[in-house]
């Protein structure tokens, strides 16, 4: 899963995840913006089903 987010400090869009950690049913992504702001998000893996190639 390619994950991007918007910086909550400078509102730059499309910041790619710098780090990913999976634990059980949860996934966490860490982000670092060009402005220097760092933040993390946590999500349920089941909320983002994977797509199979046709």
Mind explaining what this structure looks like?
By secondary structure, the chain is mainly β. It has one domain. Helices cover 0% and strands 46% of the residues. The protein is built from no helices and 4 strands. The chain has a 4-stranded antiparallel β-sheet with strand order 1-2-3-4, with no helix packed on it. Strand 3 and strand 4 form a beta hairpin.
In short:
With about 55 residues, the chain is mainly beta.
Task: Please tag this protein with its features.
54 residues; mainly beta; 4-stranded antiparallel sheet
Radius of gyration: 12 Å
| SSE series | EEEE
Mean pLDDT: 89
- What share of the residues lie within helices? under 10%
How many domains is the backbone divided into? 1
Q: What's the quaternary structure here?
A: single chain
Q: Can you count the helices?
A: 0
The structural class is: mainly beta
Instruction: Kindly estimate the percentage of residues that lie in beta strands according to DSSP.
Output: over 45%
Q: Report low-confidence residues grouped into runs of 5 or more.
A: none
Roughly how many Å apart are the termini?
A: 17 Å
In order across it, which strands form the biggest sheet?
Answer: 1-2-3-4
Sheet with the most strands, sense and barrel status: 4 strands, antiparallel
Cα shape = elongated
Counted beta strands: 4
